Amino acid sequence: MTGRELTDLLSQSYRRWHLTGTLENGVIAALDMEGRLFTVVNNKVINRVVPSAIKNRSNKNAYQNPGGDALWPAPEGTTLGYEYATGAWRVPPAITGAVWEVVLQAENHFVIRAEIDLINNYQAGIPCEFERHVKMDSGDNFVTQHVTEVIRYIGGKTLRNGEFSLAPWSLCQFDSGKNGKVTLPPPEKRDVWDMYGPSGSQRRLTNGVYVVKTETKDRFQLGMSPKVPWIEYTLENQFRVKRYAGELANGQSYIDIADSPPDQLPSSRGVSLSVYCDPSGFMEIEACGGCSEELAPGTELRVGITTEYVMV
Predict the structure, then answer these.
(1) How many beta carbons lie within 10 A of that of residue 139, not counting itself?
(2) Strands 142-153 and 125-139
């Protein structure tokens, strides 16, 4: 899909959008689709695009997953997560229906913001502002995207450790298949782990590089500690995308982001980077921020994420 085809589809579906750079080399923010970002290099949208999910709307019967790069709150499951407030997995309407606005725009730089009231699995309400500060550089065959992801607590009551868990979490989606792979520097065994079922058959060390095959019959997800410096997704003969997550602010620490049952306590294994592979033919390279010891009014949880998109 080209950049023009995507913006035409958004407009025809009555979805607002904002562009930095150009439609040939730039970043398109879908303001009415969870503030998702779509990056275009050499007139090709690199992120996954699902036209049917753009044309339709999420409701209680079906979640429409349009692709792109989304900012979500972590964790997904456990007693303190945000996807099981009704008992069954769902993306909360506060996220799918959020009104994102452009609050700053300059050359190759913009900031978008939305108010999103979260409800965790303890039924505790956590009013927040979500912000995405986006800067981009581009050149022949590449776009580099620098995003500072922010979740700002705007509630009037201070929440203490044990009452909440919250971190900014960027999920960047791509089409996958037999020609897709993720590479990373060889990790220590304790620094990469399965978040669900075992995926040992999908991973191997080859010529000094750790390789994850993304084509799979069963969904799997790998959590990675902050000792893993980067992850890179390559779709053979098409593109490669490399992600880095910046350091956390003092007093913040990585958390368990897993889609665990809502009656299960969070584990102590904090995730900085993650790879998710789905048998339906898409995958995600993810990056996470951290959580503070308490949420006082005005507390900001933020992480800087650099994503390098290169055509090959």
Answers:
(1) 10
(2) antiparallel
What are the tens digits of pLDDT across the range 156-209?
A: 999 998 899 999 999 999 999 889 999 999 999 999 999 999 999 999 999 999
0.85 exceeded by pTM: yes
The total of other beta-carbon atoms located within 10 Å of residue 205's CB is 10
Separation CA 269–CA 51 (nearest Å): 36
Instruction: With beta carbons less than 8 A apart as the criterion, state whether 203 and 109 touch.
Output: no
* Residue 294, CA distances (Å) to 85, 142, 143, 230, 251 in order: 21, 40, 37, 29, 10
CA distance 191 to 193: 7
Domains of the chain: 3-311 (2.70.98.10)
SS3 label, residue 6: helix
Q: Dihedral angle at the C-alpha atoms of 98, 68, 76, 296, nearest 10 degrees?
A: -50
Residue 16 tokens read as 């607002």
